[in-house]
């Protein structure tokens, strides 16, 4: 880094640091907010989105180049309302202290656990759903009583600028501040001494965010991605499974962290699965290049990356089946649109076998025994969601208990996200921590134990000298009882 660049970086960190310091001063001066103010902040957050929903949908469509307005309205706006309303409704209940040792209260020993706000929460948003995936964590942080700073993705600049422009109409900067800018701003933002940092994005960038946060010992929640597997069970309805899996793969042009990435199909049904998938895609997209509802790659870099994954697989012997409408030539660099593509005969030499596709491409693999699919899934990093298409039977329960993933969805795309109260998050390389429902409130709270004694004697002071003979006898008896109890349990387990 040159001297000029280093000076600019210091100035950038200083400006962001001043914003953080202002929020923290206000937080400390005001103290933990009551439920009414927390709900009011959530309501203002909702109003900010709902009052400007058409502008947000237009901004995201312009950022993508081609994106269904209806789909964007559903995913960016409507899709988050039930989770936020559930959070708002439960704020007073979640704020309550948990009373401990209730019987001891009559003797003068009081103990409780208080959920306390952390302070200032930083949120780094992604580009695939730049509204929903910044507003949802912000609502959870407000519910827990915190202040919020949001760094919008530079990949969707129109949406970022819109959010930054309208936020001051609904919030004081000490409550919510929206930050825009490129990678330099994102790097400086990740290095701030927040009380918690929330990031949604790729595992590779998530690792950089966690590394930057570690310098200040800032706890992080990482909502990442991965290669989400699908298993079509031997007893599944192959037509229904193929249709639903294919439709799920095409949501937002495949640019969704919970999209199916690859699917295991019984060997004898692979050809039928592919035929139904092709038929579904042809029906959904009779035209692509001029179709405003067919989502383009968000930028040239992502377009080139997905096209490169397909080309690499083809060069190494994979069967590539692109569903291209008659008279069109795809992929089309001008519109950044890639035809829905089914890839077979994939092996581990190919990049597509290990890299998250994040595009309109579905890998199809055959299997003869369920253990083959399970062993493959377990040999790779844990995904954000694992899919099963088939009945809820012993095979499904074995699949659930013998694989590891952030969530499990059966017979439908993203079904694990339907309950508003359910936690959402990854495990291992697909994420760290969770939110939605009470999990979001917990993520941005510190559970503080408060104990007070009005007893006429000390409880813990007995551990200090001088040690009486009766104390030694009591300690010995307690130790013998504990050993006897533990030994009995171990014998019973055998």
UniProtKB/TrEMBL annotation:
One of its GO terms (molecular function) is aldehyde dehydrogenase (NAD+) activity. Pfam families: Aldedh (PF00171). InterPro entries: Ald_DH/histidinol_DH, Ald_DH_C, Ald_DH_CS_GLU, Ald_DH_N, Aldehyde_DH_dom, Aldehyde_DH_NAD(P). One of its GO terms (cellular component) is cytoplasm. The active site is at 223, 257. Residues 36-450 form the Aldehyde dehydrogenase domain. Gene3D superfamilies: Aldehyde Dehydrogenase, Chain A, domain 1, Aldehyde Dehydrogenase, Chain A, domain 2. Keywords: Oxidoreductase. GO terms for biological process: aldehyde metabolic process. Belongs to the aldehyde dehydrogenase family. This is Aldehyde dehydrogenase. It comes from Mycobacterium syngnathidarum.
């Amino acid at each position: 880094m040159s001297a000029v660049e280093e000076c600019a970086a210091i100035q950038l960190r200083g400006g962001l640091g001043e914003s953080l310091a202002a929020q923290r001063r206000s937080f400390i001066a005001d103290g933990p907010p009551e439920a009414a103010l927390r709900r009011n902040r959530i309501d203002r957050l909702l109003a900010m989105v709902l009052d400007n929903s058409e502008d947000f949908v237009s901004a995201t469509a312009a950022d993508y180049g081609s994106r269904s307005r209806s789909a964007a309205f559903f995913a960016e706006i409507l899709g988050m309302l039930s989770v936020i309303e559930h959070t708002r409704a439960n704020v007073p209940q979640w704020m309550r202290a948990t009373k401990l040792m209730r019987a001891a209260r009559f003797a003068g020993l009081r103990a409780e656990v208080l959920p306390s706000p952390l302070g200032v929460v930083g949120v780094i948003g992604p580009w695939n759903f730049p509204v929903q995936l910044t507003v949802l964590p912000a609502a959870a942080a407000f519910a827990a009583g915190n202040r919020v700073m949001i760094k919008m993705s530079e990949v969707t600049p129109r949406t970022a600028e819109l959010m930054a422009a309208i936020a001051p109409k609904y919030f004081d900067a000490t409550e919510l501040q929206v930050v825009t800018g490129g990678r330099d701003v994102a790097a400086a933002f990740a290095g701030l001494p927040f009380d918690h940092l929330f990031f949604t994005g790729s595992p590779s960038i998530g690792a950089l965010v966690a590394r930057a946060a570690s310098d200040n010992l800032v706890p992080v929640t990482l909502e990442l991605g991965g290669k989400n597997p699908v298993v079509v069970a031997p007893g599944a309805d192959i037509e229904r499974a193929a249709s639903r899996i294919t439709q799920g793969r095409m949501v937002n042009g495949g640019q969704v962290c919970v999209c199916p990435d690859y699917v295991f199909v019984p060997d004898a049904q692979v050809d039928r699965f592919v035929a139904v998938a092709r038929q579904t895609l042809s029906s959904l997209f009779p035209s692509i290049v001029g179709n405003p509802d067919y989502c383009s790659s968000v930028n040239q870099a992502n377009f080139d990356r997905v096209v490169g994954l397909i080309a690499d697989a083809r060069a190494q012997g994979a069967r590539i089946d692109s569903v291209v409408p008659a008279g069109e030539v795809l992929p089309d660099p001008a519109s950044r649109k890639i035809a829905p593509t089914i890839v077979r005969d994939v092996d581990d030499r190919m990049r597509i076998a290990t890299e998250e596709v994040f595009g309109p491409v579905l890998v199809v693999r055959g299997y003869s025994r369920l253990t083959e699919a399970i062993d493959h899934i377990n040999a790779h990093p844990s995904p954000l969601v694992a899919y099963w298409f088939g009945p809820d039977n012993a095979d499904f329960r074995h699949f659930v208990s013998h694989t590891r993933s952030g969530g499990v969805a059966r017979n439908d795309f993203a079904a694990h996200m339907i309950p508003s109260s359910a936690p959402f998050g990854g495990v291992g390389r697909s994420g760290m921590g969770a939110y939605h429902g009470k999990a979001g409130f917990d993520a941005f709270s510190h559970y503080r134990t408060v104990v007070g004694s009005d007893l006429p004697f000390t409880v813990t002071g007995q551990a200090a000298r001088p040690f009486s003979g009766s104390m030694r006898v009591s300690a010995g008896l307690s130790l013998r009882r504990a050993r006897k109890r533990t030994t009995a349990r171990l014998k019973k387990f055998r």
